[in-house]
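protien #1 (seq + structre)
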Amino acid sequence: MLGAAMTSCNRNYHIDGEVDRYGYDGVKLSLLVFDGQKFVCIDSCDVRHGAFQMQGRVDSVRLAVLCNGFEPIMPIFVERGNISVRIKNTELNAEGTRQNNLFYSFLDKKTAYDNRFEDLVQRKNMSFAMNGFFGDFTADDDSIQIVIKESEDYICNFLAKHYKEPVGISVFSMLCDAQPHFIITPLIKRILDEAPESFLKKEYVKRYIQESGYTPSTGE
């Protein structure tokens, strides 16, 4: 009996949330997961005095979306352990369990690259506005290409380390969902070409490949 109780506890998730946004007190938050056909609510609670809690049993890692009504707030991996969530105007973060730690550390670094890219593009645009077609933008273009390469190298290296984990497929789907209708960008092509066969056989990846019509040269 004691052993069964301990096993059950080991399969539980516990979410402690902190909310620092106007208008959230008293709001019902929901955790939604996609079951293959539609989104299903697996947990919900009210925000009270800037805090909320959710808990339950989970038999496997599931990627969920924390929502305010029908409005998505942030993704959360529902997995065994204690998960700390912060919802602020300047920050969305979930940590405390492996997949959430990996995912949000990835997002932090990718965001840093994205911000560098945007800053360089704005600087080039300002130079163009001042100098027109007679300006020399070689240095700006070189800096932009360096950031793009560093960002893509980071993404590919991250995926290479985590092909077999839920965070791997989630990062890949996030990159693909940002593209219109199954487009194979140079980055997605590189990911698919370097990925092992086991990753290419995952349902989301296989469907993306089929819809795009691309044939990867596998990394295995």
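ok now protien #2
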Amino acid sequence: MDGGRLRGPDDMPECEPLVMASRPAASLLVWPAFWLVGLAAAVGVALGWMPPAWRPAGPAVVAAAAAVVAVLLVVRPLVAWLTRRCWLTPRRLRITVGVVRRVTHDVLLGHVQEVAHSRSWWQKVRGAGTLLLTTTAGTTIRVADLPQIERWHALVAELAWAQRDTRPASPGGSAEPTTPLAGDETLRSAT
């Protein structure tokens, strides 16, 4: 947030206001937090029960093993969570992933034909879900673990329909149908 206003990526055009932005659901960090507490307890027990004969090298071995486990089970998921972002504007859905190798994926909402979401039982408990977008090219794009999935679904569907409604006529002269599908009225009234 920047003075009460959502802030998008630096390369996002100024003419595209940001509708919604999010990281993956913060509940993805439950397991890394659990592993961190368990690892700290294990290190304490290992150092407390260590025989005096192992004292010169033992603590260093325990610390090195704990550091490796911490990187794999705590730091890696935390960095993955911190570096994955999703932005929604009236024209596009932008997904960025990565630190060293940054990948940006723009989905133009005018090319979205179907919007759906799925939720596993664990995602349901956490209030998250996976957004599924089918494009005109027939590709399905998955955006996993978005918080407030129903809101994301409704906004993306509404904005995709708005983009389709404003799309110019095709070269053959006939405009694409702009009549909403059955049930679309509920999405429009939900936002």
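Residues 28-81 form one domain.
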